[in-house]
Amino acid sequence: MNFIDDKLEEFCVKYSSDSIGIIGQEIKERTLKSSELPQMLSGEMENSFLGFLIRISNPKVLVEFGTFTGYATASMAMNSAVDAVVYTMDKEGKHNKANQSDWKKAGIQQKIQFFQADALVKMYELPKKWDFVFIDADKENYPQYLEFAITKLSENGIVAVDNALWSGKVLQSEKDGETQAIFDTIEMAKCNPNLYVTLLPIRDGILLVQKRSH
Ligand SMILES: C[S@@+](CC[C@H](N)C(=O)[O-])C[C@H]1O[C@@H](n2cnc3c(N)ncnc32)[C@H](O)[C@@H]1O
What we know:
- Helices cover 40% and strands 21% of the residues.
- By secondary structure, it is α/β, with parallel strands linked by helices.
- It has one domain (6-211): Vaccinia Virus protein VP39 (Rossmann fold).
- The chain has a 7-stranded mixed β-sheet with strand order 3-2-1-4-5-7-6, with helices on both faces.
- Helix 7 (142-152) links the parallel strand 4 and strand 5 (153-162).
- Helix 7 (142-152) packs parallel to helix 8.
- The structure holds S-adenosylmethionine.
- S-adenosylmethionine binds next to helix 4, strand 2 and helix 6.
């Protein structure tokens, strides 16, 4: 869901830098053809914003929970330094062949390591400290993903959590399992005095978290 008028969103996209270039259009078209849930794609506005964050924070180790058709993965790779690496995990492998082909076409394949795995298991095996994390997999496990990501964050590392407003359902008093997990994730972040937290109504909501140095 978008929280702003479609025309205003189009205007924002038009006057924002394109985070991903021509390959973005191809990934979008492929997603519409090959996926039953094309709405899972994160899209231009969100990735332009995340691309900006990546450009100003210069992460070298980027981690994505939930690859899907590789749109945000491509954006993360394109907006990070040449020596950066993007680790991305998805329990499904059905989009991988097409993803690899798109990433190769865009010249970013060597920066991306894809793991077909349950992120809840694989996250423990990823190396090093993480500088930029994009959480966008199954909502029920968001609290575990954020909790673990915080332990892996480098000093100025950032975590971005997608769908943080979940079409506005976070406001409901009776919450289903996914909504409750997203709500718990937001609360956990806000209640942690060691984190600086911003919750933004971009697309379906983005929760941004950084470890406080002061
Ligand atoms: C919303 S989509 C990701 C969209 C993608 N990040 C983008 O920007 O276009 C969520 C993805 O998470 C994956 N997923 C769900 N549960 C998972 C799990 N436990 N481990 C890894 N991936 C999972 C799904 O297969 C799906 O492809």
